Amino acid sequence: MVTTKPRPSGRASIAKVQPLPDKTFIIDNGAYTMKAGYASDTPIEDETIAMSACSIIPNALVKTRENRVYIGSQINTHIADCNELTFRRPVEKGYIVNWEAQKEIWEHSFLDDKTARSKELRIVIPEETTLVLTEAPNALPALQKNADEIVMEEWGFGGYLRCMGPSLNAWNEVQSVFGDPATQKYDSIISPRECLLVIDSGYSHTTVTPLYKGQPLQRAIRRLDLGGKHLTNYLKEIVSMRQYNMVDEAYIMNQVKEAVCYVADDFVRDMEQTWKGNRKCGQLNPGDSVTVDFVLPDPNAGRKGFMRQHDPLLNAKKRKSALSGAGTETVSEDVLVLGNERFTVPEILFTPSDIGMKQAGIRDMVLQSLSVLPTGLHAAFLANVLVVGGNSLIPGFMNRLETELREVASAECTVRVRQPQDPIRYTWLGASQLAANRTEFQKVAITRQEYQENGSSWTGRKFAGAL
Amino acid sequence: MYHVEVLPNATTHLTPGWTYVPDRGFDPSKAAITPTIGRKRGIRDPGNRGDLSSRQTNAIIRHLAELDRENHKDVHIPVPVKQKDAATRGTRGKVTSNVRRILQSQKSFRNYLDDEEAALAQAAHASQRPPAKIAKSSLRRSSTPATTPSTSTPKPDSRRKQSTQQSAESLPQKHVPIDRAPTETKPTETTEPMDEENEESEENEEKEEKVKVKGLIKSEHDNDPLLRSYIPSAPSDRIMQALLSEPPLTYNAARAGPPVTMQSQRHFCCVCGYWGKIRCRNCHSRTCGLDCYKVHEDSRCGAFY
């Protein structure tokens, strides 16, 4: 369709207006992982099919113990020994800060024909591709400008849209998530699509974004500076203090966190259960005890880490078998015993004062966000709370959040807190839905020609909605 | 008797001998470098036990910074050198100056944030009116929840502004019967088209209210006029447009504030994680009982604070 030209030099004026390229590549550029893939060309009917085009790629450069550096998805495939991995992440606090590293990861994952082999992830000709790039709310203008300039001047994408990640969720079929019938009579005025409160709990922070007809209400966006990274580091710190020294094992502790952590629905009860005095009495049958063991991965034996029920007699057994000299298997494994660590760690998202932080927890953050909006909208937002981001996968998270919001909302309001099937890729899916809606998409995205004519500050204003 | 009270404001009075300095509360970004609360204050007013000492605040800030780290040690991971750099560039011409500047920049997020803060402060300082207004309003909005949407979109038409404000003011009392509406619109009766608009929006609101009531949870008191529950109606389209067209808050303004519902802080045992009931005499960290206290005293007392 389009003849491939080298980039038009300088101000070569092109007479006719170029449309946006048909192909749309979406990168939901998180601090921990990138969610990337091509948007479907046709309007999406089946979400799972559309979702299959989206891959999750670690957004990091990793150095191993042997001082080898791996990029992006190589972390999952090339690294056998995951001890003492160190990470360099281009995204800091949710925003792309270091473009040197980000460029390397993007080129390795999407643009370089030697390393980006799979068809779903390869951007063959940037000039014939529209790029959709997400960003966290309240980004610094300097960083936004950097992103625009790099995308348009380094790779020269044919079309470009930079937009706020949480706002893309409104384009999804949220009715099905909330269990509403697709067409409702009374929601013709305020439907879930129109009022949606997105809570995005990611790696670097947790944000609350109220969306009205898919657009963010900027004054009410709030951020809690706690995310998955802080949970992992907190768990790491506790375990290092109480059991083994794990300070250099962020990667393993992340696995431990994902395996064992949960959000308590009754913090006090669980705390009493894990008290060491109870443990000695053995009054609880081990089946419903909170305490678990996590067997650490063993790179020499090629074993992965896993969780199992707590065995109070493990140490005694070990000693015995060591004395008798039999069965090296039980001796060689290293076990972390996790009791109250399991729920006190994710608890800081709800009660940041537990670590002395002077910020509100998620529930109060929602209230603070709503308090600057007209009261008429509160009920609509509370009835449509959508939670995305990796932390929402912690067991008990959704339950706890709904309970807490229910407690503070006025009695006649409906409170619905829902989570999509795949909370990590849901934002990406929303972008895909937006791209399929060509008329809306063309309103917000810009073409390469427009960038060349108007420059980066115009682009910034355009994406801010000021034009 | 005379009673002189200095009201808290943002100005600093310079008086010979002493100075009134506005107490802006606790600023974590500055406290890490220069603790504003003097160390001796803790000794001077011991009644203030609820507050944390500067030592403890600093310890908390250090702890939070620790949690925010990517790696435990500072490491530098260079981008691997590519063999055929020229080949991959190939078709794409040469690097523009913008791109080169961005790629070579080694600034961290902290640097960018400081830059922006400095720029905002300067804009507020140097040029008197317009930027200062923007900066102030964005800062103010974070701390005090304003009920009326600020009409930040510059509209030369002052009438319009009035009407939006008015409809915003009438927001908290939407359940007021309609027959009171004329008294409310009185001051603006001189302009006819506006009146119509107001009525229109009110009609809309009424309609919306009816519709919204269906979404409420039903209770047996719904027929009781005193106990009947209603949700305030949705705001008019114009208010929503004003809200949507607002500029984003700054990074710092968007941070969630201190908790609304003040609960007493929970303390945990620094050894086993159970409730921290006993406070160590030397280092103020908590333990749950004598067992843990002994462990703490023997091994790590004073090591972390």
TrEMBL record, chain A:
Similarity comment text for this entry: Belongs to the actin family.
Organism: Aspergillus avenaceus
Transmembrane segments: none
Superkingdom assignment: Eukaryota
Pfam families named among the record's database cross-references: Actin
Gene3D superfamilies: 3.30.420.40, Actin, Chain A, domain 2, Actin, Chain A, domain 4
Official protein name in the record: Actin family
Lineage: Eukaryota, Fungi, Dikarya, Ascomycota, Pezizomycotina
SMART domains reported in the protein's UniProt record: ACTIN
From TrEMBL, chain B:
Acidic residues biased stretches: 192-206
UniProt keyword terms in alphabetical order: Metal-binding, Zinc, Zinc-finger
Species the sequence originates in: Aspergillus avenaceus
UniProt biased composition (Low complexity): 140-155
One protein family per Pfam: zf-HIT
Region of interest (Disordered), residue spans: 122-219
Superkingdom of origin: Eukaryota
One GO molecular-function entry: zinc ion binding
Domain HIT-type: 269-301
Alphabetical list of InterPro entries matching this protein: Vps71/ZNHIT1, Znf_HIT
Protein name stated in the entry: HIT-type domain-containing protein
Taxonomy of the source species: Eukaryota, Fungi, Dikarya, Ascomycota, Pezizomycotina
GO terms of biological process kind: chromatin remodeling
One GO cellular component term: nucleus
Record's compositionally biased regions (Basic and acidic residues): 176-189, 207-219
